[in-house]
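re: ur question from yesterday

yeah so i grabbed the chain u mentioned. its 233 aa long if i counted rite. heres the sequnce exactly as i have it in my notes:
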Amino acid sequence: MLRLEAVSASYRGLKALQGVSLSVGSGEIVAVVGANGAGKSTLLKAIAGQVATGGAIEFDGQSLARLAPHRIARLGVNLVPEGRRLFPRLSVEDNLTLGAYARRGDADRFKPLALVYELFPRLKERLRQRAGTLSGGEQQMLAIGRALMTQPRLLMLDEPSQGIMPRLVDDILAAVTRIRALGVTILLVEQRLVEALAIADRAYVLQTGRVVMAGPANEIAANDEVRRAYLGI
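ran it thru and got these C-alpha cells back, copy pasting raw so excuse formatting
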C-alpha cells in the first residue's frame, strides 16, 4: 500500500531523514521505533506532505510527491500528529464533525461517528464538553476519532501514548488493534517500545534519520543487542 524509496528530508534546518526506504502492506500494523531525534515524526510528516522530501513516496502506486496535504488526506492517508492538535475551544462533537470536512459532499461523511462512539464510549458521554477540558487520554481518543472521520485507508499515529495516564495507554493501543481489524492499515510511531512491538506485525528501527534494522516486530523485540543499541531498553 505504501512505499518509500531513498527518502530524505530536512526539518527546521536539520537533516532529519537520510535515504529511508520502507513499505507498509495492506492490513498491517507497522511500527517505527528509535530514540528521540531519530526522525520518526519527520517520517510521518513527509508521508503526509507536510515537509519537503527527496526520493519516492507512493501510495497504492500513486506518487505523493508535490501533492498538498489535503489531497493526500483525500486519498485515504491521515496523520494523527504528536500533541493531538485539537480545537480546544470547540466541543468534542464539533471536533469530530470537522474531521469529516475533507469528505464534504459525500452522503456518508458522518457514517464513521457510530464507529468512533463504539471504539471510544467516553467521547459519546462528553459530546458537548470542550476538547481542551478533556484528560490527555480522552484528547488522544478524540484525535484518533477525528482522523477516523476522514475514512482513512492508512492511519498514521505519532506517539499516541504520550502524556496519557498509564491505565489509559492499554485502551488506546487496544483501539489501534481494533481499527486494524476493521480494515485500516496502521503506521505507528510510539515511545512505549515494548507495547508497540507487541501489537505490530513488522517494525523499522530508525537511528539519526536512517533505517538501521527492519523485520518482524517480535524478532526485533527479542533481540537484546538491538534493544540496548537502538531502543535504549
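noticed a couple things. DSSP finds ten helices and ten strands in the chain. also The first strand starts at residue 2 and ends at 11.
anyway ttyl
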